[in-house]
Write a structure and sequence with these properties.
This protein has 336 residues and is of the alpha/beta class. The chain is built from 12 helices and 11 strands. It has a 7-stranded parallel sheet with strand order 3-2-1-4-5-6-10, with helices on both faces. A two-stranded parallel sheet has the order 7-9. Strands 8-11 form a two-stranded parallel ribbon. The chain is globular. The protein binds nicotinamide-adenine-dinucleotide (NAD) and thymidine-5'-diphosphate (TYD).
């Protein structure tokens, strides 16, 4: 299969490319990525000489460039997006441009080039928060709380419209919060780990009572892979660890602190940074589990290996935090 992955230089996209290249020796992959602040080709440097992998620097909002890149592919997995809630609350423009307009460009290319399959990688955040013990499920109304989640809900609406109007061969996945290697240190888990290694405090928002259903990134990759091969066109699949008991941000923070031998005095309580802060996300993942998927990494195992990865890869995240990683493309791909 020849696959086009958008946003493959980001956190989940790069883990997905690594996952496919390791598990499918004959797969051919094109990584189409604009290299925003969140795109880092160092995530994939071990594949630079691999004939199965190629990189195209491009913007999903540029329809001509995208159509050219997508010629002859068997499927598109569309990860490319602005992904950070706090940034979207600060300024939503780029989120609407990339996440909504960009999604339509990808959908149009699927129609025009008659590409057999596309996955739109969406998020559980489209449902908004949900009171315990209820879980959101496919078909529930969307109730997004930030420009990020609203833009993802809009992209889903465009996909659903194309499925209905043009029988576009699209599937949607909605996963809960991911964590693991190569995550940009602006999200909770990598920000807190790297801050603590640097001896800095961790900013825990709004008392830390919020609940997220954390899933280790390789389990998200295996779920998308399964949808790609066994999913039904036109369907949407909610993906979740369904951690039981559920875990608050405070509990995740205390686990990370303990793994790094730090005390709770390193917590800096912060409020007001995330207006509209969703209290609890929880989704019912029975549909994807009925295809044969289940998570393989427990939260404790995943946090141990994530902390270890950031301890072992200080060079990677220090270059990210300093901005040095942004020179990598010029140095290794020899463009002007
Ligand atoms: P990320 O921010 O780490 O990476 C995004 C990637 O997209 C970067 O490589 C960036 O350069 C690229 N990109 C951004 N704008 C682009 C554009 N206009 N054209 C081409 N490339 C562009 O994000 P992530 O955490 O890896 O998330 C990937 C996808 O998964 C997103 O669609 C996100 O909504 C979804 N998702 C994320 C999570 C999570 O916990 N991180 C959970 C569920 C779903
Ligand atoms: P985040 O990692 O930004 O992911 P998302 O907003 O997509 O869920 O945030 C996860 C949770 O952690 C969310 O409830 C907000 C909280 N949070 C903090 O308490 N402090 C932080 O510095 C960040 C980035 C997030």
């Amino acid at each position: 299969m020849k696959l086009l992955i958008t946003g493959g230089a980001g956190f989940i996209g790069s883990n997905f490319i690594r996952y496919l290249l390791k598990n499918y020796p004959d797969e051919v992959l094109i990584n189409f990525d604009k290299l925003t602040y969140a795109g880092n080709l160092e995530n994939l440097k071990e594949f630079e000489e691999d004939a199965r992998y190629s990189f195209i620097k491009g913007d999903v909002c540029d329809a001509n460039a995208f159509i050219e890149a997508a010629q002859g592919v068997d499927a598109i997995v569309h990860f490319a997006a602005e992904s950070h809630v706090d940034r979207s609350i600060h300024s939503g423009h780029e989120f609407i441009h990339t996440n909504v307009f960009g999604a339509q460009v990808v959908i149009d290319a699927v129609k025009e080039l008659k590409i057999p399959k596309m996955i739109l990688v969406s998020t559980d955040e489209v449902y908004g928060d949900v009171d315990a013990p209820k879980k959101s499920k496919d078909g529930d109304p969307f109730k997004p709380s930030s420009p990020y989640s609203a833009s993802k809900a809009a992209a889903e609406s465009l996909a659903i419209a194309a499925i209905r109007t043009h029988e576009a061969p699209i599937m949607i996945t909605r996963c809960t919060n991911n964590y693991g290697p190569y995550q940009f240190p602006e999200k909770l888990v990598p920000l807190f780990i790297t801050n603590l290694i640097e001896g800095k405090k961790v900013p825990l928002y709004d008392g830390g009572t919020q609940i997220r259903d954390w899933l280790y990134v390789s389990d998200h990759c295996s779920a998308i892979d399964l949808v790609l091969r066994k999913g039904t066109l036109g369907e949407a699949y909610d993906i979740a660890a369904e951690n039981d008991p559920e875990v608050t941000n405070r509990e995740i923070t205390e686990t990370v602190l303990a793994l790094l031998g730090k005390g709770n005095d390193m917590i800096e309580p912060v409020s007001g940074l995330r207006p509209g802060h969703d209290q609890r996300y929880a989704v019912d993942s029975s549909k994807i589990r009925s295809l044969g998927w289940e998570p393989t990494v427990t939260l404790k195992e995943g946090l141990v290996s994530t902390v270890t990865w950031y301890q072992d890869n200080e060079d990677w995240w220090k270059r990210v935090k300093s901005g040095d990683y942004q020179h990598y493309y010029q140095q290794h791909y020899q463009t002007s």
